[in-house]
Amino acid sequence: MIIWMVIGMAVVTAVPRFLPAFIVDFIKFPRWVDRWLNAIPYAALGALIFPGIMSVKPDAPQIGVIAGLVAVLLAWLNIHIIFVVIGAIASVFIMTS
User: Which range marks the domain in which residue 17 is found?
Assistant: First the structure.
């Protein structure tokens, strides 16, 4: 009985994830919908990263904000992603030591 429940839960969670991926290729969306859908990954990434930036050092959230701005600046200058991460880590290290 438990195995059928696990299989059922897997199907119920997999269908809503896979179905749109197959349907979206056959539907032509208006331009504004395409622009909105293209912005979702950036919004999700920001929502995932921002709380971490604010909690780098709980008593001094400005350190995380400055390190985030350093990362944005380095990324804007088209620096390789590894160096963007290293730059943000180095800026936190410099500000906390």
Answer: 1-43
| 64 plus 35 within the same structural domain | no
pTM score > 0.90 for this model? no
Kindly state the tokens that stand for 75.
Answer: 């990324």
The length of the chain in residues reads 97
Asked if residue 91 is part of any domain, the answer here is yes
Q: Name which of 88, 80, 45 is nearest 64 in CA terms.
A: 88
Contact predicate 88/73, CB 8 Å: no
Residues 62, 95, single domain; the answer is yes
Question: 29: which residues sit within 8 A by CB, 6+ positions away?
Answer: 37
Instruction: Walk along the chain (97 residues) and give the pLDDT tens digit of each residue.
Output: 899 999 999 999 998 888 888 887 788 889 998 899 888 888 888 888 889 898 888 898 999 999 999 999 999 999 999 999 999 999 999 999 8
